[in-house]
C-alpha cells in the first residue's frame, strides 16, 4: 500500500485532534474529487512498518491528547489496500484501545465485500458513498456531498 500524506496532528478530518492517513488508490474517480492526486494506486510513497509504528507512537503520545485515527485517501477500502488497513486498524484497537477510528470510502455500506466488511468491524465511524459534485454541500459536517452517509458503530 502507498500513501500520500500523514498528519500526526489534524483537527479537520474528524472530531477532536487526530492522526490522519491519506492512502493511495481509488477506483471511483469521482468528478470534482478534491484528492485527485491520491487516485492512482502507485502514487505516493510505500506504507512501511516504520510508518505504521509512527502512527501508533503518535496515537499513544500523552503530550498531545489525540482522540483517534482518520483514514482517507484515495480510498482505504480499495481492494489493494484492505489487507494493510485491516492490519493497521487491528493494531490500533489492540495498542490504542481508547482511540476511535474514522474511515472514508467511496463504497456504500451495501457494496462492501467480505474483506472490506472485516475492516469495518474494527472502526467506530464510516463515511460512505462517492462524492457527487451535483450534491455538494459546504454545510455538511465530515462529508462533501449529501448522498454520503455517516455510520456510527457501537464496538
UniProtKB/TrEMBL annotation:
Its cofactor is [4Fe-4S] cluster. Pfam families: Fer4_12. GO terms for molecular function: 4 iron, 4 sulfur cluster binding; [formate-C-acetyltransferase]-activating enzyme activity; metal ion binding; ribonucleoside-diphosphate reductase activity, thioredoxin disulfide as acceptor. Signal peptide: none annotated. CDD domains: Radical_SAM (cd01335). InterPro entries: Aldolase_TIM, NrdG, Organic_radical-activating, Radical_activat_CS, rSAM, rSAM_sf. It catalyses: glycyl-[protein] + reduced [flavodoxin] + S-adenosyl-L-methionine = glycin-2-yl radical-[protein] + semiquinone [flavodoxin] + 5'-deoxyadenosine + L-methionine + H(+). Its EC number is 1.97.1.-. Keywords: 4Fe-4S, Iron, Iron-sulfur, Metal-binding, Oxidoreductase, S-adenosyl-L-methionine. The keyword Oxidoreductase applies. Belongs to the organic radical-activating enzymes family. Activation of anaerobic ribonucleoside-triphosphate reductase under anaerobic conditions by generation of an organic free radical, using S-adenosylmethionine and reduced flavodoxin as cosubstrates to produce 5'-deoxy-adenosine. This is Anaerobic ribonucleoside-triphosphate reductase-activating protein. It comes from Vibrio galatheae. The lineage of its organism: Bacteria, Pseudomonadati, Pseudomonadota, Gammaproteobacteria, Vibrionales.
Amino acid at each position: 500500500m502507498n500513501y500520500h500524506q500523514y498528519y500526526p496532528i489534524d483537527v479537520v478530518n474528524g472530531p477532536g485532534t487526530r492522526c490522519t492517513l491519506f492512502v493511495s488508490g481509488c477506483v471511483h474517480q469521482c468528478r470534482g474529487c478534491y484528492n485527485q492526486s491520491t487516485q492512482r494506486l502507485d502514487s505516493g510513497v510505500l506504507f512501511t512498518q516504520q510508518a505504521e509504528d509512527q502512527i501508533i507512537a503518535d496515537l499513544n503520545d500523552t503530550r498531545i491528547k489525540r482522540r483517534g485515527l482518520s483514514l482517507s485517501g484515495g480510498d482505504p477500502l480499495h481492494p489493494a489496500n484492505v489487507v494493510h488497513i485491516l492490519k493497521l486498524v487491528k493494531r490500533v484497537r489492540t495498542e490504542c484501545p481508547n482511540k476511535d477510528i474514522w474511515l472514508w470510502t467511496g463504497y456504500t455500506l451495501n457494496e462492501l465485500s467480505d474483506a472490506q466488511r472485516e475492516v469495518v468491524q474494527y472502526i467506530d465511524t464510516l463515511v460512505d458513498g462517492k462524492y457527487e459534485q451535483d450534491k455538494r454541500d459546504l454545510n455538511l459536517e465530515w462529508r462533501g456531498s449529501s448522498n454520503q452517509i455517516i455510520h456510527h458503530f457501537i464496538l
